[in-house]
From TrEMBL:
PANTHER family: HYDROLASE, METALLO-BETA-LACTAMASE SUPERFAMILY, METALLO-BETA-LACTAMASE DOMAIN-CONTAINING PROTEIN. It holds the Pfam family ODP. Gene3D superfamilies: Ribonuclease Z/Hydroxyacylglutathione hydrolase-like. InterPro entries: Metallo-B-lactamas (IPR001279), ODP_dom (IPR045761), RibonucZ/Hydroxyglut_hydro (IPR036866). Residues 29-221 form the Metallo-beta-lactamase domain. It comes from the Bacteria. It comes from Oryzisolibacter propanilivorax. SMART domains: Lactamase_B. This is Metallo-beta-lactamase superfamily protein.
């Protein structure tokens, strides 16, 4: 499928790829983004080896890879940046990533590959030039990664939120923006409860995000959020208990269950279910 055009004017375009990873149920659906401003381009959250070939070829139809300025990574997870070695080989782009991950990402590549190629952003974030405009690199630490950024594009007014606001969908469903959050929450809730670190962090973030003029929130998994769904997301996050909020001493017991490598299941099965 062609990428979804989130925004386009004469100078500036934001494209979203939703179906580059084969949907065999093993790898979570993931979105990758190409932002073009004049003759400058950046990819946000390029992904792992599953997405590399398709994204590189898909991008070539819209922008010459040799002119790519940045690979921008919200954090350092496998679905974000595992194909870093191949991207650094096939383009001359610089990697923009949290300073927290600067000395860890070279483990994704052959020796020496990252030398002079990493822009390590300090915790406070900043404004990154892109063509005649800029991207705002916004602090999003612990949502979910320790060193985590979101990216605001003032031209399209899109806020790219990495793993925040994600939903578990197919690539086709991810192309349909959500305008009302209520029926969408069941696809978001489990992920946010486990992968977001704490309600305190969510509330600090919504306080910052509410200051921005946001037309669309676009996560790295699942569908973009638009219209009323944006404010509804902020409100939902403000009241969401997650991560360490939900962990107490029950989560840290010396285990009694056994891992069966044949069935790849735990033994015994849950007592509560079998009586
Ligand atoms: Fe992640
Ligand atoms: Fe992710």
């Amino acid at each position: 499928m062609e990428p979804l055009e989130l925004y386009r004017d004469r100078q500036h375009a934001c494209l979203m790829f939703t179906d580059l990873v084969e949907e065999d149920g093993q790898a979570v659906q993931a979105n990758q983004f190409l932002i073009v401003d004049g003759d400058t381009g950046a990819i946000i959250d390029p992904g792992g080896t599953l997405a590399y070939n398709e994204l590189f070829m898909g991008m070539t139809r819209h922008f010459p890879p040799q002119k790519l300025s940045y690979l921008i990574a919200s954090h350092a997870d496998p679905d974000i940046i595992a194909a870093l070695d191949r991207w650094l080989t096939s383009t001359s782009a610089q990697l923009v990533i949290s300073r927290v991950w600067e000395r860890f990402v070279p483990h994704f590549t052959k020796a020496g590959k990252t030398e002079g190629r990493i822009i390590a952003v300090p915790d406070g974030g900043g404004h990154l030039p892109l063509g005649r405009h800029e991207l705002v690199v916004l602090p999003a630490h612990f949502m979910h990664s320790e060193g985590n950024f979101h990216f605001y594009d003032p031209v399209s007014r899109i806020l790219f939120t990495g793993d925040l606001g994600v939903s578990m969908t197919s690539g086709a469903e991810a192309r349909v923006p959500v305008t009302e959050l209520k029926d969408h929450i069941p696809r978001m809730e489990g992920f946010h409860r486990r992968y977001m670190v704490s309600n305190k962090i969510l509330r600090l973030w919504t306080r910052m995000a509410r200051q921005l003029d946001v037309a669309m929130i676009v996560p790295q998994h699942g569908a973009p959020l638009m219209g009323r769904a944006i404010g509804q997301l902020y409100d939902w996050l403000d009241g969401l208990a997650c991560g360490v909020d939900l962990f107490d001493e029950r989560a840290y017991q010396v285990p009694t269950a056994h891992i069966d490598p044949v069935t790849r299941q735990m033994r015994p099965a849950l007592k509560a279910v079998n009586g």
